[in-house]
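hiii, so i know i said id send this last week but things got crazy w the move. better late than never?? heres the sequnce for the chain we talked about at the cafe, plus the structure i predicted for it. fair warning i was half asleep when i ran it
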Amino acid sequence: MNTSSIPAAPGTTGSTTPGTVEPESVHTVIDSPCGELTLVARGDALSHLYMTEHRHRPPFETFGPREDDRPVFTAAKAQLDAYFAGELTAFDLPLSVTGTPFQQRVWAALRDIPYGETRSYGQLAAMLGNPTASRAVGLANGRNPVSIIVPCHRVIGAGGDLTGYGGGLPRKRLLLGLERGVSQPTLM
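okay and structure toks below
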């Protein structure tokens, strides 16, 4: 696995030098219209965002100790609050995510999908120069470690239907509705 930032993401951290020690992970938990969100950081960068019952969520003990006042958590909470209030359309947070080079390319492409718009898995594969890779794009999309921040919810099926989402389809529907200006109650 490659540890690096998602290319083209503002405020991201660089790759970890081989042989260096990763900073210890710490976490916090915040409330949102999607329910509780667990934010995990390594050093000064956000590395994970998990929703309750999130697919591919690792065991809680891997998140490290709780540390609510870390600056990256304060910034993430402020930006998430602004996003959910309809006041923020793109996040600017330092990220440190782990993934294969292909996953990194997919996650970078997700950030190019404009707020309030969607793309199909096939369209995303074509954006990456490999139009037959929609299944691989879907798998990489499902492993996005910072959901919402890197907007994997903006990817839908070829026919326009909502398909899988790590946080569950009700949350995907809520996020897309929020971005389209559709008033919705909170999920939780």
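btw The chain is about 25% helix and 15% strand. thought thatd interest u
miss u guys!!
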